[in-house]
Amino acid sequence: MSSPSVETVPDLGRCDHCAVRHQAVCGALSDQELSRVNQLARRRTISAGQIIMSDEDPVEFFANVVSGVIKLTKTLVDGRQQIVGLLFPPDFLGRAFSTSNPYFAEAATDVEICCFAHDGFERLLKEYPDLEHRLFEKTLNELDSAREWMVLLGRKTAEEKVASFLLLLARRAAVTGCSHASAALLPTFQLPLTRSDIADYLGLTIETVSRQITRLKTTGIIKLLDNRLFVVPDMDALAKIAGQELPPVH
Q: Residue 2: which pLDDT band, with cuts at 50, 70 and 90?
């Protein structure tokens, strides 16, 4: 499958004006090292629903997610697909030191990514140990998240699954900021997936997802500003239902 038609802009905003620079892999670099990265970087904007990377296609580029949400899926031999992950700002897209992509990457929302050519970026990893170390840290974090999701799929109840998914979105919105932030600065986010996709991601039916969201709304754990825009008045209460503990606030 060919790559989607996207807008490519060289050096848009430059690294020193990047909203996710300090949290992304390139945040480990000095200003001088960033100038090298900036020569490789190209911003791309992708509309919701477009494929960014195709399963088993050759790796052509890697990317930092600057805005939006990317859906990762795997395809079974009979054509069925399973959502295996979501990427948010400032997550890293792509499998370094691999010749092919391990999954489909699709824009779940309108997305902006900062792309680096495959060969050039892997050369930088060899030249800059701090960059390689940051990427290694992010890879381990992703592995930890995948193991936690295995527990969710295998052991948690429907209520805990839906609460865990909404907690994930709320926490990521709090970290990266949200264009829909309320006056009270409560965690506010827009659902990046359809109810059908959420059901697929959580191993539930659409009806169960809708029922659990309604229950959380009725009890005041969440509020809906519209069909897709959510506010979380009490993160601790949502975390308790999800069977998780929030990290201490510093």
A: very low
